[in-house]
Amino acid sequence: MRAIPPYKGPKKVLVELMNEVERKVHHFRKECWNVTIELLADHLGLMINPWKYSLPNVKWTGPISKPNYPQFQQLKQHIQKTGLIEQYIKEAKEEPWDYLGDIFTEEELAGRHNRLGQNLTPRFIVEFMVKTVGIGEKKQRPRPDALTEAWLSLESLSYDKKLDRNLFLEQQRLRNIAEIEPLWTKYQIKPQTVIDPAGCGTGRFLLGATWHAPKAPLVLFGIEIDPSLYRACLVNMAMFSNHPYSIICGDALMIDLPHCSPGSKLWDMGNQWNPADISPFYCKIKPPFKFSLAALAKTKEHPLTPLPVPIPQTPTAFSLAQYIRTKKES
After folding, report:
1. 285 lies in a domain?
2. For the residues of 206-274, what is the DSSP string, one character each?
3. What is the pTM of this model?
4. Cβ burial, residue 71 (10 Å; 0-12/13-18/19+)
5. Would you say residue 299 lies in a domain?
6. Would 155 be classed as within a structural domain?
7. Which of 135, 202, 260, 306 lies in disulfide reach of 101, CB 3.0 to 4.6 Å?
8. Number of neighbouring beta carbons within 10 Å of residue 9
9. Which helix or strand (DSSP H or E) is residue 195 part of?
10. Order of strands, edge to edge, in the sheet holding 192-196?
11. How far apart (Å, rounded) are the C-alpha atoms in residues 190 and 22?
């Protein structure tokens, strides 16, 4: 049996929590890691309300997720007596980092052969890449594409006193914060969208972005195919993110290009503990066809007119408003 390296600080508390779980459930180490993440998610309230930490003002009306471990309630009562969860959250927030990912890597929980190639990026590389990209820097950037701009300005365009007084009052609050102009006309506060599409894992790059620019107007997006790492990412984002975010569980190589933009309804299905079915957003394989020069020439003569940019009604559209409000309160 491979020896587990010695730990200290928050990582030591996390390992003690996993050991306590292992003594009760008698499962393999990877399963104990999964159960530990479920205990953390239940303590943070992520199962009942997926948007609790990303969009606190949005009430979740979808199905409520349940723990995957059958004897979860009994284990939960036992772990509560130890106080390890509270201790880990307290120490981890004092020294923020992806400790769940460190345990996953150092204890080789991906398996000896690691057939999926699950290798989490080291911390110094994450910090280097975040600084290289220039996330959150106040410099002249190209304006976002039309769809992204429409999505970001939805909270501004949808405020109408006749339709909803609460939305109107929200608009007034936004205008009073830092004495700024309406969001959709002030170029300097245009937010950046940060996405990690190539398997965000436990969220290290997204966390690096939120730590590198904690006060910058960012909106974070991530895609992960492995449900275990996806759930670990949700716990990490809930504990450490300073910005609104949406994480989905799916195959990034199969998602159709139009659904990758922030305006897509795909992101409404994010942050759910039991991942939603996102197969309707995957690329549809077209049947074999015959090439025709006549049809190609006809297309050249009559080009397709671009479709109007939709302004989607999504709960994630209020993420920028929530970020600015929390920034003012802090």
Report:
1. yes
2. HHHHHHHSTTS-EEEEEEES-HHHHHHHHHHHHHH-SS-EEEEES-TTTB-GGGGSTTSGGGGGTT-SS
3. 0.73
4. exposed
5. no
6. no
7. 202
8. 13
9. strand 192-196
10. 192-196, 218-224, 245-249
11. 48
C-alpha 94: how far from chain center = 21
The encoded tokens of residue 178 equal 């830092």
Structurally, the chain folds into a number of domains equal to: 1
Type of residue numbered 281: F
User: Do 34 and 228 contact (CB within 8 A), yes or no?
Assistant: yes
Say if residues 75 and 43 touch (Cβ distance below 8 Å): no
Residue 92 CB neighbours (<10 A): 22
Tokens 């052969």, located at residue: 113
How confident is the model over 195-244, as pLDDT tens digits? 888 789 999 999 999 999 888 888 899 999 999 999 999 999 999 999 99
pLDDT tens-digit readout, 70-124: 889 999 999 999 999 999 999 999 999 999 999 999 988 887 766 667 788 899 9
